[in-house]
Amino acid sequence: MSDPYVLAEQAADALRTRFGVDAIDLALVLGSGWAQAAEGLGEHLDECPLAELPGFSAPVVAGHGGDLRLVRTPAGSVAAVFTGRTHLYEGRGVAPVVHGVRTAAAAGARRLVLTNGCGGISHPAGAPVLLADHINLTGATPLVGPRFVDLTDVYSPALRDMAKTVDPTLEEGIYCQFHGPAYETPAEVRMARAIGGTLVGMSTALEAIAAREAGLEVLGISLVTNAAAGIAAQPLSHAEVVEAGLAAQSRLSALLGGLLERL
Ligand SMILES: O=P(O)(O)O[C@@H]1C[C@H](O)[C@@H](CO)O1
Ligand SMILES: Nc1nc2[nH]cnc2c(=O)[nH]1
């Protein structure tokens, strides 16, 4: 099995060559429900299918794109926008889940914005929520060996404060990453609440761990696409998740636009 750090360096070299840039400044990963909000973000410079770069495969989840988009932000930064991600539940192992983050870091990014669609325990559906912390319930980690990474402030207080200047109504939450792909049982949601979680999802935490190992400053934003299982009566579906993203498009677009004026 190839060394994931070497593979990320190879993918970063391929990115620089494909886009003709020396480096990128930041990266943005779009989760379920965020695709439309990222349309028209900054000046479109170029894009290519993710699968063209070493170590990437085409995303398989509806609502996730398969492209890497390069944009120049209003602040003048060069941003790599991953329109989709690989999830742990796809069965490819942990390294592919964080390959995009490691590639972005190897390509020079210093900041990372991770977005996702998730279930709300104590936040209303339709609201974006800043991640203050996470609880990794996957039983997995992208770190192998004595990589004793400090995860204090895994989600940057400075970037969270910046986001709140863009949208002062933003709440903060604690994101519990489950393995997936099944949604949680009501009992699992009650467990997540009991251990301090306010959001339940299937991504983001592992990417954030890899990002902190690489020294990236991380901002995590969840779109609460649905009430977590057992909170509301109706059954959960991915169609509902994608639909909720469409419904929240204008607020998410304003938030991302305001952030990219500052990043
Ligand atoms: O990539 P994210 O975490 O936004 O996608 C969420 C979690 C599952 O992949 C999917 C379930 O509806 O949406
Ligand atoms: N784990 C999990 N992920 C989600 N993504 C969107 N909604 C949910 C949810 O309720 N639970």
UniProtKB/TrEMBL annotation:
Gene3D superfamilies: Nucleoside phosphorylase domain. Belongs to the PNP/MTAP phosphorylase family. Its EC number is 2.4.2.1. A purine D-ribonucleoside binds at E184, N226. GO terms for molecular function: purine-nucleoside phosphorylase activity. Phosphate binds at S32, H64, R85, T86, H87, G117, S203. Keywords: Glycosyltransferase, Transferase. The gene is punA. It comes from the Bacteria. InterPro entries: Nucleoside_phosphorylase_d, Nucleoside_phosphorylase_sf, Purine_phosphorylase. GO terms for cellular component: cytoplasm. Pathway: Purine metabolism; purine nucleoside salvage. Signal peptide: none annotated. One of its GO terms (biological process) is nucleoside metabolic process. The keyword Secreted does not apply. The keyword tRNA-binding does not apply. It is an enzyme of class 2 (transferase). It catalyses: a purine 2'-deoxy-D-ribonucleoside + phosphate = a purine nucleobase + 2-deoxy-alpha-D-ribose 1-phosphate. This is Purine nucleoside phosphorylase. The purine nucleoside phosphorylases catalyze the phosphorolytic breakdown of the N-glycosidic bond in the beta-(deoxy)ribonucleoside molecules, with the formation of the corresponding free purine bases and pentose-1-phosphate. Cleaves guanosine, inosine, 2'-deoxyguanosine and 2'-deoxyinosine.
